[in-house]
Amino acid sequence: MSIPASVRYTLAGISWPVYVLLYTPLVLVAYYSLTPHAASEWHAYQLLFSDSAVFTALQRSLILALGSASSSTALGVLLGYGLARFRNRHGRGWLSHLPGLIIYTPIIMPSIVFGISELIFFNLVHNATGLFAAGLQTMMIAHITFQVPYVALTVFARLSGLDPNLFDAAHDLYADGVKSFIHLILPVVQPAIIGGFLLGITLSIDDFTISFFTAGPGSVTLPIYIYSAIARKGVTPEINALGTVMIGTIIIMALGHFFITSRRERAGHFAARGNLG
User: Fold this and answer.
1) To the nearest 10°, the Cα dihedral for 265, 271, 274, 276?
2) Which of these, 64, 121, 145, 235, has the minimum number of CB atoms within 10 Å of its CB?
3) What is the CATH number of the domain that holds 228?
């Protein structure tokens, strides 16, 4: 059934202004990173790549992003599996949905509130025990804390449509809980695991508020570096160049995830057709 032309034009009239609002600022960042009045249009990028402070902040951001994303993915997979496997499907009332509500809370909570609460918690523990001094360690824990719900909900959504009788069938075939998890659950949630891991990296690199409240004197990440540079000098071509590099990196990661997922889906369709044939 074809869509009427009037509906297509209406949807296009709504969609294109949204696309313009979404992507024009990103294009402007790349445009203003060029310096046509300098000796080279790429002068801002030359200054950027020769700045040791940028690479130090980048190194900390990558360590923080990869470490927190790996840990939050592992914890989120287990949490999402627990929510899907052991939830009460026939429960009524708010108590039956309490675990899901608890998971949603860090997502809907404002970042500044979450960051202040983490700061108070770490200061309290540090004053009492001497542990958790402000730095990369506290930032890592804070990032894991707010990334886990995203991964858990992604895995939970993937498993919520899974027939629970499959677990009974696996047990009938002498598969214990560990084997069922490895051979049944992990293949099903593999796209969610990859997506959750990439989402964790993106959230970590993008985060400023929580990082700002939990950072120490020697734990400046890229968002904190950008904020400090803008506070001192304003938005310079070097900052725009750094923003362009970050945008390009995120786009490459998103395209890579898209192509990997599409290839696996096509391979699954071909395998299914072969089995039917």
Assistant:
1) -80
2) 235
3) 1.10.3720.10
Using CA atoms of 208, 69, 54, 110 in order, give the dihedral in degrees to the nearest 10: 0
> 20-48 burial string, b = 16+ CB within 10 Å, else e?
eeeeeeeeebeebbbbeeeeeeebbbebb
> How many domains does the chain fold into?
1
Write down the pTM of the prediction: 0.79
Is 239 inside any structural domain? Answer: yes
Render pLDDT for 232-262 as a digit per residue (tens, 0 to 9): 888 888 888 888 888 888 788 778 777 877 7
- Residue 207 in tokens: 């985060």
Q: Which residue range forms the structural domain that includes residue 203?
A: 52-270
- The whole-angstrom separation of Cα 220 and Cα 272 is 50
Which amino acid type is present at position 265? E
